[in-house]
Design a protein that fits this description.
This protein is an alpha/beta fold and 146 residues long. The chain contains seven helices and five strands, in the order βαββαααβαβαα. The protein has one domain: Ribonuclease Z/Hydroxyacylglutathione hydrolase-like (Metallo-beta-lactamase, Chain A), CATH 3.60.15.10. The protein is 31% helix and 24% strand. It has a five-stranded mixed beta sheet with strand order 1-2-3-4-5.
Length: 146
């Protein structure tokens, strides 16, 4: 039985693709790096994605991942991190049992390392597509494995 469900946001970003129509209209092109917090009676605390975290900055300091941060600059504060938002709800990062990953873009997975005891759940084809990836081409596809 689902006991609690909340849609939260761990920062925001702007991508060239999402900006095309907004830029043409002269408007902003930011979108939320959303994640879901779920508390289930049997499965405990689970997340759907994690949004951005400080790990993004670490992973994008050098080339070629640096391109990702320049092309799609995120906005987030330390307090925006999923782990910090959960702490404010009285939930410690080690209490998160599972994280369901929709896909492997940074705005969905940058906070995975903040939850050391969580099991990661994802579709096998999505995981297989990420294995062994590195370099400029993968960075331009909005994917990097760090």
């Amino acid at each position: 039985m689902l006991e609690d469900l909340r849609w939260l946001s761990a920062g925001s970003a702007c991508t060239p693709n999402s900006c095309r129509s907004a830029a043409a209209a002269g408007g902003p092109c930011r979108f939320a790096a959303g994640f879901l917090y779920l508390r289930h009676r049997r499965h405990g605390v689970c997340l759907f994605d994690t949004g951005y975290s400080d790990h993004f900055q670490t992973e994008t300091r050098s080339f070629p991942n640096q391109l990702y941060a320049r092309l799609m600059p995120p906005r987030f504060e330390g307090a925006d991190r999923a782990c910090e938002q959960l702490r404010r709800l009285g939930i410690a990062p080690q209490d998160v049992r599972s994280i369901i990953v929709s896909h492997f873009h940074a705005d969905h997975i940058a906070g995975l390392r903040d939850f050391p005891k969580a099991s990661i759940v994802c579709a096998e084809p999505a995981y297989a597509a990420m294995r062994g990836r590195a370099g400029c081409a993968d960075c331009c596809r909005a994917c990097f494995p760090g």
